[in-house]
User: Which sequence fits this backbone?
């Protein structure tokens, strides 16, 4: 029989293992079976704990903490459906490579498959969406089992942090009594050091790339999430090669402080409209495809005269165009820096100049439109980007919000960090993920750009802002429904088919939502007013909601107007 | 290549298959990949569709529809994390045997494992919590494939409805273009008839039971969900045997119109306090254990002088006490009726009388307490039970709400149907499940009894009430936190450990929640006022929230006062 003291030792040693490999934060959802682990985490000085009743929001909050801190984060819940609520965030963590350590607690073996209350099969609960599933042993206090508990805590946390990073699930069968012995020492005694190597190419492999790229007409295409530091390295590489760089907001190319006319903002707008006399000889892709569908179609249109390089450390072959001819499996930043060092001569300026022309023509076209001078969802999104403070953090929601930024914003040299959930692009959990981001740097400007459906989907997450005084500024683009569908083929449908299934207006008064959770509320009436409010957030972060009332149809008309203007200006009819 | 017309035929034929086996309702969450199925379901006259943006609430709503209609219900969502949001409701459906047909849509094979947007591995997404996982073929229009589509729709729906009922998951890979051909005939042309047999004992097996039970000192223990009709059959059986019947609210024994002094309401209060001179010779259990922990402990204390029969059609051996000596694998109602017909002589009245005495003593003890005459969470729960109209529907949440009803309510002869989510007993999805129940019989009195944490957890579900004008009366027991933990061992903790992890006050003004979703709001100030409001709901159902402000500590004190009074009255010290 295991007594309270043995259980406490065993679980405490497991926690020490997690701490040794870098866990500093844990998000706990209340429950009975999880009591001993909850109390040990809560009492542990080296771990900051957050409590959230809704496990779905709790898991997305942990995702946000880990994204903004680049550290592994632990999650803890009780047995039963509680754990199933983690699933959406786990799928996103798996796809976007975020190291979450998911701790579920369970009935012990003798209470399984017998109809015990709040019990269900938790083995492999998250299927292929975790890197590992581990059923822990029933707590025992022998040295062998303490070593085992420590080892698992240390090992799984490190495994979650190895490339490709991702979530790991541990299931703890626990017997009653569930109260741990809190009089024991809970100080951390064990530690293991890890020197982690990274994938790097050999000198010979690097020189092959240099030979193939130097002086060629090339394009860098950077997708996926990148840090500001990585973004600057990519721009440096583009400048060294004299190649245009196409990316999207998540790559942080337009939000880092390095400016360059090679940064092809607006690529989504012009790339399908230009008369491309010369196709690139080389395309070098880093990470996933950028979000722009037009960029994807342009890449797809390239023929065998273009050689496609795909730099992907994970080796997961995530190239949906299946064009990769040279796969470079190496850490991206180290690789980019190594190449930059070795390139001796640039590609000719004529190659660069045509790209810069297209980009500038697009900028002029945008400047001419009266719609760009009044408040709407597009201009509000642009303004958010412009008004981000140095070292601020912006979380951008899926569907329309990120597309507005991708299509319409250029480099502002303001050096802020943009985050999103672009692993699987769900509209779920956005509020909680943004609040996790905010909790890592609450003293900075923290902004969330989000639509009304995503806001509604994760409204529960706002309780975290209320409980932990998280000063997030929410810019709510409210077009009362699913604005993205007005851009897709579904728009061809009859209104009586379209509105109930795709339009889905929800008619919520979001000022009440703000009031419910204690956020300040402002309805933006003009661009000037929005500008003032956003400027204020740079100096004085606070929990507030700024509602921008949009119109689904207007967004589409503006986009179409830009495209038709560019068709004229850029030559394609 | 499959064209739009072929895809339409294939999916339409699948829908016909589902209709043939009984699907009449579908809950759809908006998305792009699911477009053709969404439109076909929406346009299908034989299927009533509901739309809900939050897939978690959508799935629980479907669960409620199926629970109240006893029919299979289809669920549809797009690819990605959308489907993962279904998981909590699917786990509950699996454990409480509810036939949901889960349709997820997916990228086709050529867009899998390649980093395509909004794509993830959806194979066996719900692990062991569905009866089957089926990857459908890419739509094709040949006769062979139309037969296949029909057969799968018909077969899986029937399979979901076979004992033990449960959810089934079908994944549809769909290629663009995603718009179906809506000009084709969408009328239902195929149908298959099903004559479903049920497990019944042989004459010889029945006579063995009769011989073993007749004139013996026995107890019927009925747990799990039962219809009013089944409940009446169980009471008839108890009367025929002259045995007490112990159950819980979900069994609907105290809410059906058949009254009997053998119905042991209050068993949770008295069963551990009585001096039981004679242990039963026979215990016959139907379904899961009742929710009362004291009843469970009493059963556990029985020794080999008691023979335990366990009637369970599913054959799943869900007996957490592992006491079953005779397992009866037969349909419960048919079995109970057959036994009732065969019993010739009753057990002596002395056996019955001691149980009736205990029950009456408890009733007196409750009547003496002043706390039972003022408004608190306990008396509010009792009043809800008393004020349910004939054929009304009550949904009761987990944790405290169902325990208040179980401990403190007796038969009122009012014939209403009580529902709950007692498969895994989560506090998630309660609002949506109750609204699903309400949507089946919106003209009747529909009430939800729920605590504040469960209310918060599924607040999003309220959008369904707003959109579909569902006249649910919500009685909110608001003790500002996790009231159940004040009854458990966690109460021994220091306040600075208890409150943040278990107490978890959320400090929400629920009148704002009511306003947000368009519900009328009343704060109950007295029992008399609450009575009037509840009586009004019998005549005029409407969407409203009645808040009863509770106190976690008071609930415990009242319970302890009852128990200590009974200790004195019933002899155990």
Assistant:
């Amino acid at each position: 029989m295991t007594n309270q003291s043995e259980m406490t030792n065993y679980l405490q040693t497991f926690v020490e293992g997690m701490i040794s490999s870098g866990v500093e934060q844990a998000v706990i959802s209340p429950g009975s079976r999880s009591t001993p682990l909850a109390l040990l985490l809560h009492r542990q000085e080296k771990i900051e704990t957050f409590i959230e009743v809704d496990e779905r929001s709790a898991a997305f909050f942990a995702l946000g903490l880990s994204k903004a801190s680049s550290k592994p984060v632990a999650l803890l819940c009780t047995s039963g459906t509680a754990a199933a609520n983690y699933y959406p965030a786990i799928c996103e963590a798996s796809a976007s490579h975020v190291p979450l350590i998911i701790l579920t607690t369970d009935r012990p073996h003798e209470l399984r498959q017998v109809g015990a209350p709040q019990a269900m099969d938790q083995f492999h609960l998250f299927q292929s969406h975790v890197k590992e599933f581990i059923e822990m042993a029933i707590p025992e206090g022998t040295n062998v089992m303490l070593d085992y508990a420590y080892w698992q805590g240390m090992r799984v946390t490190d495994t979650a942090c190895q490339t490709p990073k991702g979530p790991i699930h541990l299931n703890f069968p626990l017997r009653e009594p569930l109260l741990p012995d809190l009089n024991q020492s809970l100080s951390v005694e064990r530690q293991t050091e890890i020197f982690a190597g990274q994938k790097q190419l050999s000198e010979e492999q690097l020189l092959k790339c240099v030979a193939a790229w130097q002086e060629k007409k090339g394009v860098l295409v950077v997708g996926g999430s990148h840090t500001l530091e990585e973004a600057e390295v990519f721009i440096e590489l583009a400048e060294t090669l004299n190649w245009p760089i196409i990316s999207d907001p998540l790559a942080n190319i337009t939000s880092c402080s390095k400016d360059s006319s090679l940064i092809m903002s607006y690529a989504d707008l012009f790339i399908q409209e230009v008369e491309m006399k010369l196709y690139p000889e080389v395309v070098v892709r880093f990470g996933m495809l950028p979000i722009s569908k037009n960029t994807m179609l342009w890449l797809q249109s390239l023929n065998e005269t273009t050689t496609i390089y795909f730099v992907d450390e994970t080796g997961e072959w995530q190239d949906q165009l299946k064009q990769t001819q040279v796969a470079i499996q190496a850490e991206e930043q180290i690789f980019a820096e190594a190449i930059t060092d070795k390139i001796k001569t640039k590609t000719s300026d004529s190659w660069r100049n045509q790209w810069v022309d297209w980009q500038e023509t697009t900028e002029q076209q945008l400047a001419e439109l009266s719609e760009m001078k009044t408040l709407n969802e597009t201009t509000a999104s642009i303004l958010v980007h412009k008004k981000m403070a140095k070292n601020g953090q912006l979380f951008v929601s899926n569907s329309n919000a990120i597309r507005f930024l991708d299509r319409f914003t250029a480099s502002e040299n303001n050096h802020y960090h943009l985050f999103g959930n672009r692993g699987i692009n769900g509209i779920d959990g956005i509020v909680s993920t943004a609040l996790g981001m905010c909790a890592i740097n609450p003293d900075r400007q923290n902004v969330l750009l989000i639509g009304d459906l995503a806001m509604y989907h994760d409204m529960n997450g706002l309780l975290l802002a209320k409980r932990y005084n998280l000063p997030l500024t929410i810019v709510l683009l409210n077009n009362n429904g699913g604005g993205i569908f007005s851009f897709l083929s579904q728009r061809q449908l009859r209104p009586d088919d379209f509105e109930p299934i795709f339009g889905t207006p929800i008619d919520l008064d979001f000022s009440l939502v703000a009031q419910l959770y204690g956020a300040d509320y402002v309805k933006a009436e003009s661009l000037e007013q929005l500008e003032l409010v956003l400027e204020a957030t740079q100096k004085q972060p606070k929990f507030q909601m700024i509602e921008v009332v949009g119109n689904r149809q207007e967004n589409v008309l503006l986009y179409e107007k830009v495209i038709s203007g560019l068709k004229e200006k850029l030559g394609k009819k």
